[in-house]
Amino acid sequence: MTTAFASPSTFIQGKGLLKDAAKYIKVYGDHGILLTDDIVWKLIGETFYTDLVSAGLNIEHVAFNGESSPEEIDRVKEIGSKTDAAFIISLGGGKTNDTTKAVGDQLKIPVVIVPTLASNDSPCTRLSVIYSETGEFMKYMFYDKNPDLVLVDSSVIANAPVKFLIDGMADALSTNVEAQTVARAREVTLLPLQTQQTSAGLALAEKCEELLFKYGKQAVDAANDHVVTPALEHIVEANILLSGVGAESSGLAAAHSFQNGLTALTGDVHKMSHGQKVAFGTLLNLVLEGADDATLERYLKFELKFGLPTTLADLHLADASDADLMKVAELTTQTGETINNMGFKVTPQDVFEGIKAVDLFSKAYQKIHEK
Predict the structure, then answer these.
(1) Fewer beta carbons under 10 A from the terminal one: N or C of the chain?
(2) Its pathway (predicted)?
(3) How does 171-186 read in b/e, with b if 16+ C-beta sit within 10 Å?
(4) pTM for the full model?
């Protein structure tokens, strides 16, 4: 058995880090690209850019077009080549991060990730989720290394809409559920080496879940009030570092495959975030592996507490036909999907029935507890 563990070279988290970011970045060179979308640019990007330039860095601002697509990656890569960028910085959310990692990998330059949200674990991983220009899931793209530097300014996270923090908690909640599934099946991780889990990777996944259950409510309250507290710092670390490294070094299973499977459909389901879709997928993962009532209730109660989707109606799929749900099930179980890490063969019919079971369990639980 060969095991492997991977992580960013450096992870730094704290309040007010953006102001002094140049001292952490300049070790990679004196000129580079800053990729950020127009909304983030107006909110904090322009100030961040000015601070970097004032500290002596030569920065080329590139506006992100919104989709981590092959076309966008090629466009930004060409700018990096023309400017002979020594490094590339992402300031933004998951798709900005994924595009930045792809460009950095292709140009063979250091990657600096500065997340503005704690909505997913993309900042720390050595992979990108690639979509078409119209937003359809295409593939995962894997790299030789993780980002060189991840800088997390917790005051920026605290000032973002709280729904993004909850999205990140939903994504992070799947980390240990899927990691334990992969551990029992003795399957491979997300690392492009066909390796199995280290104890360290599994321990991070377990710690991620522990923090979510211990500090989630406090952190959401703090974020609602736009204040940084120790509880919020714990959840930011869980959402970004522990979830990212834990998932990558411990593996994924059904929860994330279900999220990908939903791209078989069109409509309002795609108004849901990655984390929201994964939240339902986490419950599906538990159902498929035969979790007992108490275990399923524990995760269901957590998701209900934070308003996450636990029924088909919550996913805007109340009127979805059985044929539509079977399309999702078929895409969820396609070759190459991580649901194949469950340790047993999962058929489209299994997923179809599992989706129905999650919906029924949640509706029954909520009906009982309405009284």
Answers:
(1) C
(2) Polyol metabolism; glycerol fermentation; glycerone phosphate from glycerol (oxidative route): step 1/2
(3) bbbbbbbbbbbbbebe
(4) 0.93
The predicted pLDDT at position 134 comes to: 85
Q: 278-317 pLDDT, tens per residue?
A: 999 999 999 999 999 999 999 999 999 999 999 999 999 9
Residue 137 confidence class, pLDDT cut points 50, 70, 90: confident
Q: How far is CA 256 from CA 4, 115, 129, 228, in A?
A: 21, 21, 12, 30
User: If you search the block for the tokens 């952190």, which residue do you land on?
Assistant: 219
Token couple for 282: 């986490």
For residue 97, pLDDT over 70 is answered with yes
The Cα 89–Cα 103 span in angstroms is 10
Class assignment of domain 10-158? alpha beta
CA distance 40 to 63: 10
Average pLDDT over residues 21-39: 97
What are the φ/ψ torsions at residue 68 (nearest 5 degrees)?
Answer: -85, 70
pLDDT at 183 over 60: yes
Please tell me the predicted confidence (pLDDT) of residue 371.
57
**Residue 329 · residue 288 · CB < 8 Å:** no
Rg, C-alpha atoms of the chain: 20
Domain ranges of the chain: 10-158, 162-369
**Where residue 369 falls among pLDDT bands split at 50, 70, 90?**
confident
Is it true that domain 162-369 has CATH number 3.30.2420.10? no
Structure tokens at 340: 């194949």
Note whether 300 and 361 are within 8 A (CB).
Answer: yes
